[in-house]
Design brief:
This protein is an alpha/beta fold. The chain is 42% helix and 14% strand. The chain contains 15 helices and 12 strands. Helix 6 links the parallel strand 3 and strand 4.
C-alpha cells in the first residue's frame, strides 16, 4: 500500500488545526514588543549598527592582512571559510567569559546539535533537565549515548539519575529556561556533578547579556567556571546578532572541530555577522546601566500584576515572564485580545509546552517604557477579571 505524501502532510496539519495548535508565521511590527528576545534592544540599536558599519569599513581596507571575504565566507571553516578575524573573535569572547577556548557556530541550534551529537558517544550517558531546549533533545537523538531525563530543577531526582548512570556522564541544563524564565540551581547541580564525576554543560542563551555582571551569564555570576565542562552562549537574543559559541577547554574545541558535524559540514558565518558579534560584545561591556534598567522593568511588571494574576505567574527574575493559562483556546484568546490592545504578546501552545501548561510568554526589554508596561499589565488584569481565561 502506498500513500500520497501530500495527503500525509494535509492530515498532519488538519490534526494540528483541530487541536487549535496550528503554527503560522505572523508579522505584527506595529505592536509594542513584549515578545522578542531582544532584551537590551541591541537588535534595534542604531549605535550597534553604526559601530558594525564602521568596523566593516576598516576590515574591508585590510582584507589581505585579515584574509577576509566581505560578503560571504565561501565555504566551511575547514575549507575556505576560516579567517584570522574569526579566530581572534573566538579568543576575545572566551576571555570575556573566563574560558580557555571557544568555537563559533552558525546558531544556538547548530551549537547544541553539534556539541551533544559529538560528545554523546557509545557507552556514555547524558542526563538532561526535562525543560531543556529542543535543540539539546535533537542533539541527544543524533548521539550514541544513553539518555535520561530528570524533573525540572529537581536536584534529588538528578542525583537518582546520576547514581545509575554509566560511562562518561554529562549533565545538561539551562541557566535560565527559555519557556519558563526560571533559574537552575546551578550551585547544587555543580556540586552533584563534582560528587559523581559528571561533566556539566550549561546553556546560557537567555542569561547572556542579562545577568548583573556585564551580562556574562549565571556560571560566572556564581563563579562556577571551573566546575563546568562546556557553556553555550548565543548571540541572537540579548546581543541582537546571530550565531553562538561553545566555550570550554582547548581539548574540547579541537574535538569539536574534528567531530561536530554541524560545524564541519556547513558554510561559515560571513564576516558581517562576525563584526556585528564583535561590536555587540564591546557594547555589552559598557551596558551595566542598561542591564540594571532591565531588571527594574522586570520588577515593575511583576509589581503591577493583580492579585488574581500573580498566582499564575511562573517564579522568575529574568526577562522572561510567563503567565500559565492552560488550554490552547484560552491562551490564544487572551493573546489576541492583548494584540488588539496594541501589545505583541504571543501564546505558547502545547505541544511546545506540556498540555495544561500553555502560557503567555512575556519578554521585558530595556526599551519598553514604564507607560507601556503599565498599559500591558492593565490589559492583562482587566481581561483576567472578565473571566476570559477562567
Amino acid at each position: 500500500m502506498t500513500f500520497s505524501a501530500d495527503q500525509v502532510l494535509y492530515d498532519s496539519l488538519r490534526k494540528r488545526e483541530e487541536q487549535n495548535a496550528l503554527r503560522k508565521l505572523v508579522t505584527n511590527n506595529h505592536l509594542i514588543d513584549f515578545c522578542s528576545n531582544d532584551y537590551l534592544g541591541f537588535a534595534r540599536s542604531e549605535e550597534l549598527f553604526t559601530l558594525t558599519e564602521q568596523e566593516l569599513l576598516i576590515v574591508s581596507k585590510g582584507t589581505e592582512k585579515k584574509n577576509v571575504n566581505l560578503s560571504g565566507s565561501t565555504g566551511s571553516r575547514l575549507l575556505a571559510g576560516n579567517s584570522l578575524y574569526t579566530e581572534e573573535l573566538e579568543k576575545k569572547i572566551a576571555a570575556f567569559h573566563n574560558a580557555d577556548a571557544g568555537l563559533i557556530y552558525n546558531s544556538g541550534y547548530d551549537a547544541n546539535i553539534g556539541l551533544f551529537s559529538a560528545i554523546g558517544q557509545k557507552g556514555s550517558t547524558i542526563i538532561y533537565d526535562e525543560l531543556i531546549h529542543a535543540s539539546v533533545h535533537d542533539g541527544i537523538r543524533l548521539s550514541q549515548a544513553s539518555a535520561f531525563v530528570f524533573k525540572h530543577n529537581d536536584v534529588v531526582h538528578l542525583e537518582k539519575r546520576l547514581k545509575i548512570a554509566q560511562g562518561i556522564i554529562y549533565v545538561a541544563v539551562e541557566s535560565i529556561y527559555s519557556m519558563d524564565g526560571d533559574t537552575a540551581p546551578l550551585i547544587e547541580i555543580a556540586s552533584l556533578c563534582n560528587k559523581y564525576n559528571a561533566n556539566l554543560i550549561v546553556d546560557e542563551a537567555h542569561a547572556t547579556g542579562v545577568t548583573i555582571n556585564e551580562g556574562k551569564g549565571m556560571v560566572q555570576q556564581l563563579q562556577l567556571e571551573q566546575f563546568v565542562f562546556a557553556r553555550v552562549h548565543t548571540f541572537g537574543k540579548a546581543l541582537g546578532c546571530h550565531g553562538a559559541i561553545v566555550l570550554g577547554s582547548d581539548l574540547l574545541r579541537n574535538f569539536l572541530i574534528n567531530f561536530s558535524r554541524s560545524f564541519i559540514y556547513t558554510t561559515a558565518l560571513p564576516v558581517k555577522n562576525l563584526i556585528a558579534i564583535n561590536q555587540s560584545y564591546q557594547l555589552l561591556e559598557k551596558s551595566d546601566a542598561k542591564i540594571q534598567q532591565l531588571h527594574e522593568h522586570i520588577g515593575y511588571f511583576k509589581e503591577l500584576l493583580s492579585e488574581q494574576v500573580k498566582p499564575l505567574l511562573i517564579e522568575s527574575n529574568s526577562a522572561i515572564q510567563c503567565i500559565v493559562i492552560g488550554g490552547n483556546d484560552k491562551v490564544k484568546t487572551l493573546a489576541l485580545i492583548l494584540q488588539k490592545d496594541g501589545y505583541d504578546v504571543r501564546p505558547i501552545l502545547s505541544p511546545t509546552v506540556r498540555k495544561g501548561k500553555e502560557r503567555l510568554r512575556i519578554c521585558i526589554h530595556t526599551f519598553n517604557s514604564r507607560t507601556q508596561i503599565e498599559g500591558l499589565c492593565r490589559s492583562i488584569n482587566e481581561n483576567m477579571a472578565r473571566n476570559l481565561v477562567n
